């Protein structure tokens, strides 16, 4: 694995953890919305996932989460 890819994966992981550590504050500001986070900052939000992705300059390298109080189960 390249050094750059490792850095991107670790940055993505840190953003994912940051979202869950700050979930209450994010729920206040972005309830029932998709958010995109890069380097511990919300860079975009939208109620529609596909609209949000269109706003992003680099969607594959951006952490995207749906902010809700409901527990979600996703089957892949």
Jot down its keywords.
76 residues; alpha+beta; 3-stranded antiparallel β-sheet; globular
Characterise this structure.
It is a single chain. The chain is α+β, with helices and mostly antiparallel strands. It has one domain (3-67). The protein contains three helices and three strands; from the N terminus they run H-H-E-E-H-E. It has a three-stranded antiparallel β-sheet, with helices on both faces. Strand 1 (33-38) and strand 2 (41-46) form a beta hairpin. The longest helix has 19 residues, at 3-21. It is globular, with a radius of gyration of 13 Å. The two termini are 25 Å apart. The mean pLDDT is 92.
Q: How many strand segments? A: 3
Report the average pLDDT across residues: 92
Note poorly predicted spans. Answer: none
Q: How many domains comprise the coordinates?
A: 1
With helices defined by DSSP (H or I, 4 residues minimum), what is the helix count? 3
Query: What percentage of residues falls in helices of 4 or more residues?
Result: 40-55%
| Largest sheet descriptor | 3 strands, antiparallel
Alpha-beta content class? alpha+beta
What's the shape?
Answer: globular
Strand order, sheet with most strands: 2-1-3
- SSE order, as H and E? HHEEHE
Span between N and C termini? Answer: 25 Å
Radius of gyration: 13 Å
Task: Kindly estimate the percentage of residues that lie in beta strands according to DSSP.
Answer: 15-25%
């Amino acid at each position: 694995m390249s050094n750059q890819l490792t850095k991107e994966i670790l940055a993505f992981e840190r953003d994912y953890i940051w979202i869950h550590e700050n979930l209450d504050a994010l729920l206040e500001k972005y309830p029932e919305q998709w958010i995109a986070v890069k380097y511990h900052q919300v860079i975009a939000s939208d109620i529609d996932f596909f609209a949000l992705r269109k706003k992003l300059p680099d969607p594959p390298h951006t952490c995207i989460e749906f902010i809700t109080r409901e527990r979600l189960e996703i089957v892949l």
